[in-house]
Amino acid sequence: MRHFLLLPVLLLIVSGCSAVKPAISENIALQGQVRAGMPAIDNTTAIYELAVHDGVSYQDVVDSLKSLSEGKNFVNPANFPIGEHIKKRGIDPQGIKEVHSFCNLSLGTDIFLDHPEFLVFAPCRIAIYEKPDANKKLKLFIGLARPTFDLKSIKNPTPRAQKAAQELENTLLEIIDKASKGDI
């Protein structure tokens, strides 16, 4: 008799576990759109990364980010030269390591008013860093912390917040694409 009761209980447990949904939204449509020639977005990560084109210097990238972001109504409230702080501790940072913050308050407000907790992800961040390429030579990269991925941490984001996060991400993707080429 015990074996007959055990089977229904096990089936109930297994079926109950399979019905558990993850807390993070799986809305694949909630992501930015890349421009032609850019690598696809990997929906499993918050990071979108582009290699900087050969011949484009670190200063070219910084100048491009400044010019392009201002032209798209973003402000750059802070930069964090992490590599310099690593050096001050007597450690080789192994190339450039920086984080630049960017804010478009018009789009951000559409998210913050509906979901004030999204402020933990503000402002948007773009990193400039070097890491070894396939030949073990340092190569310059630009990485974006994707706003649409961050929004997946919000339970039931409003359509207005989703639209704003997508527009933020689309604009930032365009900016880093152009900056990776040294465009102004």
From TrEMBL:
InterPro entries: DUF302 (IPR005180), TT1751-like_sf (IPR035923)
Entry keywords, A to Z: Signal
Residues in DUF302 domain copies: 98-132
Pfam family, one: DUF302
First and last residue of the signal peptide: 1-19
Protein name: DUF302 domain-containing protein
